[in-house]
Amino acid sequence: MIQNRRLVYYPDVIKTIERFPADTCEVIYHALEEARLGGKHLQVKPLAGFKGASTLEIRDSSGGRAFRVVYTTELKDKIVVLLAFEKKSKSGISTPRHQIDLVHKRLKEARSRFGDK
């Protein structure tokens, strides 16, 4: 079933994604389009530490570098893209604490601004 939800980006997210390698950008925008239409790309996983499966992370690697984009499907008619970053740590798979804190903050703002389901 096609949902056709609207994509909403935090302004810094687009600028950050534009600095990623072209092949990573392609994966990210394809995954977001799939989410907008109600699907789930193979490189999307629930973000650890968040209840349920409505806060998701696109994971892509290019040239030995790791890139992440976090978005939420929690809102009824919108996909809100909360954060994009290059993962700097070469060891461990967890998302850095300051990035998780920013996701929590932006998720709270998105709920307030756009309303819960």
Tell me briefly what this model is.
The chain has 117 residues and is α+β, with helices and mostly antiparallel strands. Helices cover 35% and strands 28% of the residues.
Write structural notes for this entry.
This protein is an alpha+beta fold and 117 residues long. It is 35% helix and 28% strand. It has helices at residues 11-18, 22-36, 97-114; strands spanning 6-9, 44-46, 55-62, 65-72, 78-87. Strand 2 (44-46) and strand 3 (55-62) form a beta hairpin. It is globular, with a radius of gyration of 13 Å.
Keywords:
117 residues, five-stranded mixed beta sheet, 28% strand, 3 helices, alpha+beta, 35% helix
- Cα-based radius of gyration, to the nearest Å: 13 Å
**What count of helical segments does DSSP give?**
3
Task: Classify the secondary structure makeup into a structural class.
Answer: alpha+beta
Biggest β-sheet, characterized? 5 strands, mixed
Cross-sheet strand order for the largest sheet: 1-5-4-3-2
Strand content: 25-35%
What is the element string, with H for helices and E for strands? EHHEEEEH
Shape: globular
Please report the total strand number as a whole number: 5
Helix content: 25-40%
Mean pLDDT: 89
Question: Assembly type of the shown chains?
Answer: single chain
List low-pLDDT spans: none
Distance between the termini: 19 Å
